[in-house]
Amino acid sequence: MFDLIPIAFKNVNQLWAYILTETLKRLGLTCAIICPGSRSTPLAIAFAQQVPEIEAISILDERSAAFFALGQAQATGRPVVLVCTSGTAGANFYSAVIEASYSRVPLLVLTTDRPPELRDCHSGQTIDQLRLYGNYPNWQTELALPSADMGMLAYLRQTIIHSWERSQTPTKGPVHLNIPFRDPLAPLPDGTDLSYLQSQFQPEDFFAGIANTTQFPIPHSPFPIPQEWKECDRGIIIAGVAQPSQPQEYCRAIAQLSQTLQWPVLAEGLSPVRNYAELNPYLISTYDLILRNQQLAKQLAPEMVIQVGEMPTSKELRNWIDATQPRRWIIDNSDQNLDPLHGRTTHLRISVEDIKAEERNLSFSSDYGKKWCEAEAKVRLVVDQTMGKIDEIIESKAAWLISQILPPGTPLFIANSMPVRDVEYFWKPNNLGVRSHFNRGANGIDGTLSTALGMAHRQQSSVMLTGDLALLHDTNGFLIRNKFVGHLTIVLINNNGGGIFEMLPIAKFNPPFEEFFGTPQDIDFAQLCATYNVQHELITSWQQLQQRLNPLPPTGIRILELRTNRKLDAKWRQENLKEFAADSKI
After folding, report:
1. What's the pTM?
2. What average pLDDT does the chain have?
3. How far apart are CA 377 and CA 136, in angstroms?
4. What are phi and psi of 330, to 5 degrees?
5. Cα separation, 577 vs 290, whole angstroms
6. Considering only CA atoms, which of 23, 334, 302 is closest in space to residue 153?
């Protein structure tokens, strides 16, 4: 720490930046993403001085940098710092800030700025950066101009502590600090005599009492199960989209609630519940397919629904709940409204781990629960038999196969559009403990590659499942390759365009469908990979894919490309999704 002191007292800006970074280090910050620029010089130098306690990573493209930080914060559960220069640089963080807000991911966004006297006068690289991200941050403010006054340094310390806390409580999310600096930005003398302050400054006294809050678990208060839940024998639990920091404990809590109430658990493909299947004997993974059978959907209509986390992606499930209008409870400890259906819903602002399960029943006594399990067994068997017989490379089989072959505990990033839907339709329950990650807050395709690289950085060898457009939208993410530590395998479904639009009514109207919705890019991914020095391999059989995914390499980035026919992929889904449960009766 004391090596920082000489740099800190070069000028007021550097002292200010030292207090800021030292406070963050003591709070528990371990990663800062620095985008190049001039106005952010004091912070870049200060973070560089904090290495190795804080890993400082330089990333050229601000949008890519922001999503890399998002992925790293998803994987670790800890806040990650983002730093950029003044002007439009910070605007490129916007989409990641929105995603962090909706996905509840802790980011600390530090946009540097020119001082007030250089604003609104056409000084270069200056825009209005106050409230740059609207209402998306959990909290936002502009710091005072740097000052060598001890009272102002204390103000800075406490503001940083508050910012850190607000990125994590009451709900995780982004915090934005706009930080103005006057010249000189480099660690050159600025005419301020700091010798007296330097002689009086006692770091251990000044920083005393700062706690590394990432080390302390959040206490849980037991929540008793309401009597009306216990008295209902036509209830279901929906395990929705979730990225819990402790997935096994999360899944165990849902299983205990299920066994206490004897209610089946409809588990979204983006819920960890499907990857810890042995914990939950009442797991329903084929609900989207089951509910396409109108007779089954009617017979299985619930009276009560407990939704844990966000609503699943399935349109079939949403329409079914909207049509049947059951009494609903949403269990989630955020302050957000998680009911897009606007039903008869009560939000319980608790974690599912807070619920006090009372007893464990190992078999269903209600006919309703048995019907769900019977339907699941029948449809799952049909899906597995159908997929197992498919030899040609089609898009839908990739998610089904990947769910069974990854090394235990593999971090997996699932891109938006068709990959998340194929995961919901076909992801087979397993006991592999796969750690699924995704950007389902705003559901966009921006930053897909960068988020996956951030997720994989310094983690277990990781995998990403994506389509070609989502990958192409973020190819600047490959610029991170020389800073990336670890391994990422990208399973690329290349159908040369937007496959999800093939599933919509607009697909029948061509023109303009192919040009404005299908949008084929005609990219040779082998050449693209050569440009970035990324390994590429064309996959021509499912056996070859299985061999490449287990075991995974320890380092590097590679693309495994599966070329499919977009029209035939869509036709296969349209012909098969309704048929999986067509003959099922209960």
Report:
1. 0.95
2. 94
3. 43
4. -115, 120
5. 10
6. 23
